[in-house]
Amino acid sequence: MKNWKVNSWRKYPVKHIPSYDDEKELNMVLNKLKSSPPLVFAGETRHLKDQLAEVVDGKAFLLQGGDCAESFAEFHPDNIRDTFKVILQMSLVLTYSASLPVVKLGRIAGQFSKPRSAPTEKQGGKELPSYLGDNINSIEFNEKARRPDPKRLFRAYSQSAATLNLLRAFSHGGFADLKKVHLWNLGYIKNSPQVKKFKELEDKIADALGFMAACGITPEFNRRLYTVNFWTSHEALHLPYEESMTRTDSTTGEYHNTSAHFVWIGDRTRQLDGGHVEFCRGIENPIGIKCGPTSKADEIAKICEAINPKNEKGKITLISRYGHDKVEKFLPKLIRGIKKEGLNVVWSCDPMHGNTLVSTTGFKTRPFNNVVKEVKNVFEVHQSEGSYAGGLHIEMTGQNVTECTGGAKNISDQDLSSRYHTHCDPRLNADQALELAFLISDEIKKNSNYARNAIKAAS
Ligand code: PEP
Ligand code: CO
User: Fold this and answer.
1) Phi-psi region of 422 (alpha: psi -120 to 50; beta: other; left: phi over 0)
2) pTM of the prediction?
3) In angstroms, rounded to a whole number, what is the distance separating the alpha carbons of residues 83 and 133?
4) SS3 category, 66
C-alpha cells in the first residue's frame, strides 16, 4: 500500500470526529487501547471477505443488522441474546425461502459513535453540543454530560469485548443448533402472525433435518448444522479509536482493524480526499460505503478504486440509502457507473436512513411501509439493470420497542411514546424485522435466480 500508515489519515481533513479538552488524557486512553487485546482476528476477517465474495457472485445473501447506536444503558445479556435471535430468525427465513446461505453481520460490539446532522441541540431555550454516541459523550442534556470524555472510549471497548464474547458463545456453543429453532422465538411476540409463519417454517425444517439424519447427515457429521458464523461491524467514524485497534498481522505483514470484522464509511464522511477514506484504504477488512442522494457515481467508483485497487471480490459493499421515493432516480446511475468501471461490489440496501421523518407526536420515526417499499424498489432496479441485490442493512432490535410506525401490529404515531428507547435512530422491533424478512424472501429468490443467469451469461 503506497504512502499509507496507520496514522496517515491525520494529514487529511476529517468530519464528525470530536475534539477533546484534554489531549493528554485522550492519548493515555488511546495508548491503553493499543496494548489491549484485539477483538477480532485477521483470519476471521479474511473468512468474512471470502463469504462476501460469494455474495458478489449471487451465491449468498448479506444480512447486516443491529442498533443505530449501542449504549451503556441498554447493555444487558438479554438484549444481546434477543438481537442475535432475531437475526438468526430472519436468516433462516431468507435461507429457506431463497435457498441461499445468509452471511450474518451484526451492527453490534462496537457501534457507538454517531455523525449528527447538527453540531448542537436546543431544548427549552438552552443550546448544548449534540449527543455523539456513548463512547464520546452522554445523552443527558447538561453541559458536563455533553463534554467528550476519553474514558468512554475504553468503556465502549470493554463493552464490545464482553458483547462479542457472548456472541461467540451463542454462535458456537449450541444455541444456533438448527434443532433448536423453536428457542429463537421471543416470548413477547408469541401471538403475532410472523410467529405463526415462523412455526410453519420450524416444522418444515424439522422434517428436512429428520430426512437428513436418516441419510447420516447430523450435527456430529457436519458442524454447520450446529454453529453459525456471526460477524461484527460498525461505522469507522472515530478514527483515533480505529487507529488504536489496528494491528499488523504477523503472518502476512498486512494491517487489520481488529475492532470489528467489517467497518463502513458513512454517507457524511465518504469524501475521496478525506481522512476516513484514507484510513480505510490501508486495512484488510471488508469495507462498506454508504451511498445517499448526494453521492455521484464517478466519485463512488473512485473511492472503490482507492480502497480496493486490486478489485478483490468481497472487499467492498455499497450500501444504498436513498429513501423509498428516490431509488429510481439515483440507483440506476450508480449501478451503471460501477459497471462501466468493471468493479466488483456487493450491492446492499439500507432502507432505514433515507426514510426517517418526524411523527405528528414529535418522535423521529420510520414508517414500516416505506422501509419495505425501498427494499422492493431496490430489488426492481437491480433486476432491470442486471445486477444482484445481495444485501440488506437494517437498524433493528430484539426488544419490544415502539420506534417505527406500522407493521402487522400497526404501531401509530400515538403508540410511539410507549416504548421509545433508542439512543439515536428508530429501530424495527422483532415483529417488524421478521415481517420484513418474510415480505422480501420471494423477491430475493427471484433476484438471485435472475442475477445468477446474468452473471453466467456475462462470463
Ligand atoms: C448509520 O448507519 O447509522 C448512519 C448514520 O447512516 P448514514 O451514514 O447512511 O447516514
Ligand atoms: Co442510524
Assistant:
1) beta
2) 0.96
3) 20
4) strand
CA-closest residue to ligand 1 atom 9: 267
* 315 Cβ below 6 A of ligand 1: no
Set out the domains of the chain in order of their start, with CATH numbers: 8-458 (3.20.20.70)
Q: Which atom of ligand 1 is nearest to the CA of 69?
A: 3
For residues 204 and 400, the model is more confident at: 400
DSSP string, 240-307: HHHHHTEEE-TTT--EEETT-SEEEE-TTS--TTSHHHHHHTT--S-EEEEE-TT--HHHHHHHHHHH
Type of residue at 72? F
CA of 266 relative to ligand 1 center, distance in Å: 5
Position in ligand 1 atom list of the atom nearest CA 115: 5
Residues with CB under 5 A from ligand 2 (ion): 68, 425
Spatial neighbors of 203 by CB under 8 A, at least 6 apart, are none
Confidence at residue 213, expressed as pLDDT on a 0 to 100 scale: 82
CA 193 – ligand 1 centroid, Å: 31
Alpha carbon of 97 to ligand 2 centroid (Å): 28
Asked if 280 and 287 count as a contact pair (C-beta separation under 8 A), the reply is: yes
